[in-house]
């Protein structure tokens, strides 16, 4: 019996079966590999995305949330409960979890290689090379010094050579993908600072991978001669990829021209090459990730091929598989192993050495190469960004027995801390100042008075807005002697995708959205259709149309709109209403964030602003110039907003296909509209000018006497028949709203009524707010030689609080 008991206790646990027969058959799904893996993936995604949402106000990259999520699910937090750990992450499931995580990591490193362009690295200037060299050498030296301290305290008995290199690499790494994400989030990716940081980080990234390959080769259990053979074989394989595989990839790129779909067999072949390269490098002994990374670098970046590869792979990998790697790391991280003054002192020492080496080394060399002080400090903190590559180094070190649990936890916390502080410190020390060109005419009324060019910026979210926008632009072109220039801005939310970074590169210049003069799409996907639509209209009309794309987080995209309006010196910004027309004629919100964007632009704009409530002006397609036949109505109560709407409508009335009706509401005191006000003289002058034009052209002027708000509502409803577009001021002098409940205060009382269910006509609405110098904080924000001031954050917070 005793012998039987011993043999039973020492028997290995059976491997997990793949699928269960179901709970009704008495099977526990957590005891089977597939349902347990599904649960693990779902749990990881929910935890990491929830943390990312909570950290979004701090503008932290998602990698921070994923690292924290992995730590929380591991033995440092939730994993301290053995029942949870043994049920959700049992030891027999970790092999499957690690395998799937490493498959995701392998393809993610392939995507990182796709983002690295060797040609740009070869073109890197001496300044970026010097900064990269300083950012590698000084922290590497401090890492070697730190390894001696760790070896004498917490990693006793570790082999000296591999530990030296692993610590040097761990402290000298700059996470290229995370840095790109932070720069894009801060709108610095295409500024001089961003380009310098990305060039230095690209050089740093390649150097770090070479050093890591050296560390892996030296960490093997064989003799030094074996390590030499590993390095020589790896070098030979890279040469083979360059000679034999790169021409095959280049041939597939040439067979995939612009405008043509990439063949499925090319995508499949490339992914198989990635897996095969991973197999070879793992067989050599330098980890499968290297093969995938090198293949990504080898893929030519010309044409659409690389972009299509990213689109095919990134969503599945980045959203589902890659977070598993952070959990796999988190399960190895036990913060509780850092206990006592000695361990916490070592943590402080490692963080200090990492920051001193990277930050001060970068700052010193930057100042020597004549980088301004603020930019040098910002660059130092940017280059200190860690992330996924850091975790890869640490995991390989732990798997190779170079790092123990305590050293691993210390280095993970170091990576988390150095990345976490990057965004807030860069925001604090670096606020770029942009030159402001002379800007005299902030309103349409002023541009009309001086008979000067009218500049309009028209923003839109989706291609559904394009026909109405083009028809509105055509209606606004006026006479040939007064030129119209329109900047159309496609508002695209900055996503967490790798392709978003390349989209930002194509869509921005010097930190701002720009017009792509080559006629190529600024963004992938729908961007091409947008370009074609506006380019076709530009060719067929006398209007100068310049398409742009703004790719930013929705919480800051208003900054793009406003600074571009300032840079282009426009008189009017047209914003899309945050609600989309449905088939039943009602409006449905596309998101609260878009509502906030409109509010922020209205509060900070350096010119007049109009919100377009789109009910399909001219139908679902663009109307040619000769077929334009619209009836437009201006509802005039008085005030600067109504005068600006009237000025814009008068400009539109110059088009031969436009019939304009100006309706002035005359009221008694029961409506509480003053008969004599500060604006009364200006209102009267605008009306007299309108009457004079009515005698000459296709303008009809009429006056309506109303007694109360009900009369106003009835009159507007009656006028809705046969009108294609209403123009109204945002803030007419009406003391009470025309609706019992107004959920869109930015439309004003009249505009809110026209956009409501109470108004059943199919007319589109343009609600105009005249430029207010007191709200124009952005014109003072950017100066030619002075430092940039900051728009008070409390103002934007107040806007969001009001909408909530």
Automatic annotation (TrEMBL):
TM region positions: 32-51, 63-79, 99-116, 128-150, 162-184, 196-220, 226-245, 266-299, 344-369, 408-430
Predominant place of localization: membrane
Domain of life: Eukaryota
Residue ranges occupied by any Cation/H(+) antiporter C-terminal domain in the UniProt entry: 631-772
Domain Cation/H+ exchanger transmembrane as annotated: residue spans: 50-426
Any one biological process term the GO annotation gives: regulation of pH
Domain Cation/H(+) antiporter central: residue ranges: 481-626
GO MF annotations in UniProt: antiporter activity
Keyword annotations from UniProtKB, A to Z: Antiport, Ion transport, Membrane, Potassium, Potassium transport, Transmembrane, Transmembrane helix, Transport
Membrane topology, as annotated: Multi-pass membrane protein
Pfam families the UniProt entry points to: CHX17_2nd, CHX17_C, Na_H_Exchanger
Alphabetized Gene3D superfamilies for the sequence: 1.20.1530.20, 3.40.50.12370
Subcellular location: Membrane; Plastid, Chloroplast envelope
UniProt GO cellular component terms: chloroplast envelope; endomembrane system; membrane
Protein's job: May function as sodium-coupled metabolite transporter across the chloroplast envelope.
Family, as annotated: Belongs to the monovalent cation:proton antiporter 2 (CPA2) transporter (TC 2.A.37) family. CHX (TC 2.A.37.4) subfamily.
Name this protein carries in UniProt: Cation/H(+) antiporter 19
